[in-house]
Write a structure and sequence with these properties.
Helix content is 12%, strand content 23%. By secondary structure, the chain is α+β, with helices and mostly antiparallel strands. The protein has a domain of 40 residues. Strands 1-2-3 form a three-stranded antiparallel sheet, with no helix packed on it. It starts with a strand and ends in a 5-residue tail after the last strand.
């Protein structure tokens, strides 16, 4: 297995020559302890999803 790629996208090449991608994400985005740590200090809560989407390749949205 070989990993390479720019930014937050990582290419994956297996020993059999097949290619794939690894997506890094989170299961939600409204976590108060992340404010000022992951999210910028003064970011409005209503913009947290937009910000997280620009930083990660996957976000789980659970509508239950």
């Amino acid at each position: 297995m070989h990993l390479s790629g720019p930014g937050n996208r990582v290419g994956l090449r297996m020993s059999d020559g097949k290619r794939g991608a690894i997506r890094v994400g989170i299961g939600g985005w409204t976590y108060e302890p992340w404010r000022g740590v992951f999210y910028p200090e003064k970011l409005a809560q209503k913009r947290e999803l937009e910000y997280a989407a620009g930083q990660l390749t996957s976000i789980e949205v659970n509508g239950t």
